[in-house]
Design a protein that fits this description.
With 345 residues, the chain is an alpha/beta fold. It contains 16 helices and eight strands.
Length: 345
């Protein structure tokens, strides 16, 4: 008697046919898909373990316009002094730092100290260095023991306002969580009271004020925008008036300062102007300053001109078969003129 019965032999024949025919391919493909699916599920599960509710909220905010600027090494006061122009801004920041330093020393000696508000209002046009100075102040606060981290979280209306009722408070809270132990910098903050844009601004302001009170030892808020608009913003809410009592105004850069900013970028990347280009640059920036509008970009305008200038130079030099080091580095008046014609001010 054989080891297998007739029915068993039929089964074995079927298995043999399966593995020698197209069924084998289907079986193998099925097995591969199952394995890949398991691996993908494992990876997704692993990722989910590392994502907290606050991180989800922050990632959503980043999709709008949120940037986290971590603390850089070095002396913030030296960095402040190295900035082009803004003598009054530097004076105000140094005065603020001195005041905090002395109050901390008095407190250490057991002397009475007044209640200090570290929150600030920056007023002025775009591109006048407000974000840069805010980052420096965050580092100063860290060095003076006001903040533990000293990082800066930068945003605007879109980083605070949600699309649906009841979500703006959640979004604002997530943003405040990300700024704890550092500075929350809100650019064009006056737009929060412009309900014509879409509403929910009052909810964001109310949430922000509550967090400023609840986390007064861990959260500093700096709001920024045009001078007149920021005055109306602060005056729109008694809570804002009580928490923001220190203002720093950022004036527009003068023509010589605009030239200095441009030349700093030139030197940083190893470019040089020929004589005609140098003359044109000074005349152009003087003209732009005299005819600037309210929305003039100041430092942003200079940066855009620089980037367009080196693009024009690249388009010209790319035609050379073997350009020299001088040709790769020199900006001509034609390069600069094309760039200035292209960039609006």
């Amino acid at each position: 008697m054989g080891l297998f019965s007739e029915s068993d032999n039929s089964f074995l024949k079927g298995v043999k046919l399966f593995f020698t025919g197209c069924g084998a391919v289907s079986f193998i493909m099925f097995a591969l898909v199952m394995c890949v699916g398991i691996l993908v599920d494992d990876d997704e599960d692993e990722d989910k373990k590392d994502v907290t509710e606050s991180q989800v909220g922050l990632s959503e905010a980043r999709a709008d316009s949120v940037q986290r600027r971590d603390v850089l090494e070095g002396d913030p006061m030296k960095e402040l002094e190295s900035l082009t122009g803004m003598p009054e801004v530097k004076k105000e920041v140094k005065s603020l730092a001195n005041f905090i330093k002395v109050q901390k020393q008095r407190e250490a000696q057991g002397l009475k100290t007044p209640k200090i508000s570290y929150h600030l209002v920056f007023t002025g046009s775009p591109g006048t260095g407000k974000t840069t100075v805010a980052r420096i102040i965050a580092r100063i606060y860290k060095d003076l023991g006001v903040l533990k981290s000293g990082h800066l979280v930068e945003t605007d209306r879109s980083g605070l306002i949600a699309e649906y009722v009841g979500q703006t408070g959640v979004k604002t809270n997530h943003l405040c969580d990300s700024a704890l132990n550092g500075v929350l910098f809100i650019d064009e903050a006056y737009s929060l009271v412009d309900e014509g844009v879409g509403g929910y601004g009052n909810e964001a302001i109310a949430t922000l004020l509550k967090r400023m009170e609840d986390d007064r030892d861990r959260l500093v808020v700096i709001v920024a925008g045009y001078t007149n608009e920021m005055k109306r913003f602060i005056d729109s809410n008694p809570g804002l008036q009580s928490r923001f009592n220190r203002y720093i105004n950022f004036p527009d850069f003068k023509p010589g300062e605009l030239v200095e900013i441009f030349m700093n970028r030139m030197n940083k990347y190893g470019y040089k102007l020929d004589d005609d280009a140098d003359k044109y640059l000074r005349e152009k920036f003087k003209y732009v300053y005299q005819h600037k509008s309210k929305n003039f970009g100041n430092g942003r305008y200079v940066r855009n001109v620089f980037e367009q200038t080196i693009t024009e130079q690249a388009n010209r030099v790319a035609k050379y078969s073997n350009p020299s080091k001088s040709e790769l580095s020199t900006i001509t008046v034609k390069d600069l003129r094309k760039a200035c014609d292209f960039v609006k001010y």
